[in-house]
């Protein structure tokens, strides 16, 4: 492209083509971070589930801390890697970043709250983290889906929110809920919220590129 | 007939402004790739847009590399919208 003068018609065509060229609503690099968190969450849940159901030792619940311990450094690494490539940020990118930052800060706050409750002799307070994972993360997925106009995120998020309310209702009504049911529901929710939409978007991007 | 803004009525500057109107911020490499321009030419045109106050340019370091981040300003947004309005009038598009 040069610094040449244009006719009005050429100007209009150029504006339209540049908008089209920079329009891509989502790039694979944008999906890497949520997919990484979802993968770590699912693998951790599987590890906890297997170890607790086979050994019945509640200390294995500490493995849940693998999510922030592995996830935070991985997030920093992936963000730094993305910053090295050609970079653009749309308003939607900024809003999505804000949503996930808010979800992350709520997680930190909730973890501190649960930890204090445990020190005060209420270890069952950690159940609140399950509600967080189902409902708050679910809201994040719904918001991201609405912004990206990707229905699979919306569907996964709504499924997760309803699952969270179902778990709360069972607890409030003192309906016994097997640990393995809750953990497997958690795994299904994260698969539907993040992994399935990633596959769908990857497929769509490949088709668009073709 | 009103004359089109000479600063925007040039292929590369208009392409850069169109991209920056669509994305919130973009770096030099992204703009170079999308406009298929040379680094030297793009740099000159970015300077002209910056001097006119149509874009803001922020230079920073990412690791050992420099990054030039461009963002359209309120003045640039207004000028671009006016330019499109003038184009529509010229082309008689309602």
From TrEMBL, chain A:
The keyword Transmembrane helix applies. The chain crosses the membrane at residues 33-52, 58-78, 99-119, 125-147, 154-177, 183-202. Keywords: Membrane, Transmembrane, Transmembrane helix. This is Uncharacterized protein. It comes from Candidatus Amulumruptor caecigallinarius.
TrEMBL record, chain B:
Coiled coil: none annotated. Residues 12-91 form the Winged helix DNA-binding domain. Transmembrane segments: none annotated. Pfam families: HTH_34 (PF13601). Signal peptide: none annotated. InterPro entries: WH-like_DNA-bd_sf (IPR036388), WH_DNA-bd_dom (IPR027395), WH_DNA-bd_sf (IPR036390). This is Transcriptional regulator. It comes from Candidatus Amulumruptor caecigallinarius.
């Amino acid at each position: 492209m040069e610094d040449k003068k244009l006719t009005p018609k050429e100007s209009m065509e150029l504006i339209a083509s540049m908008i089209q060229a920079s329009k891509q609503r989502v790039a694979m690099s944008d999906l890497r971070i949520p997919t990484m968190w979802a993968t770590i969450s699912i693998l951790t849940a599987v590890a906890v589930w297997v170890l607790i159901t086979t050994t019945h030792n509640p200390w294995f619940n500490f493995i849940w801390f693998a999510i922030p311990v592995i996830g935070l450094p991985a997030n920093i690494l992936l963000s730094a890697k993305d910053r090295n490539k050609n970079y653009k940020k749309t308003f939607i990118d900024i809003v999505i970043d804000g949503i996930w930052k808010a979800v992350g800060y709520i997680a930190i706050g909730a973890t501190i709250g649960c930890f204090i409750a445990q020190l005060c002799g209420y270890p069952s307070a950690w159940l609140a983290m399950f509600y967080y994972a189902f409902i708050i993360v679910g809201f994040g997925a719904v918001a991201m889906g609405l912004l990206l106009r990707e229905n699979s995120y919306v569907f996964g998020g709504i499924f997760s929110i309803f699952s969270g309310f179902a778990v709360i209702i069972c607890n409030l009504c003192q309906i016994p809920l097997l640990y393995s049911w809750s953990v497997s529901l958690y795994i299904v929710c994260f698969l539907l919220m993040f992994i399935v939409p990633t596959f769908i978007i990857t497929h769509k991007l490949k088709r668009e590129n073709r | 007939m009103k004359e089109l803004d000479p600063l925007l009525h040039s292929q590369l500057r208009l392409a850069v402004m169109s991209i920056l109107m669509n994305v919130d911020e973009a770096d030099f490499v992204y703009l170079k790739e999308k406009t298929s321009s040379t680094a030297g030419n793009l740099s000159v045109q970015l300077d002209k847009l910056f001097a006119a106050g149509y874009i803001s340019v922020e230079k920073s370091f990412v690791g050992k590399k420099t990054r030039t981040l461009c963002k359209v300003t309120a003045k640039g947004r207004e000028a671009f919208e006016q330019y499109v309005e003038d184009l529509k009038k010229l082309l008689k598009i309602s």
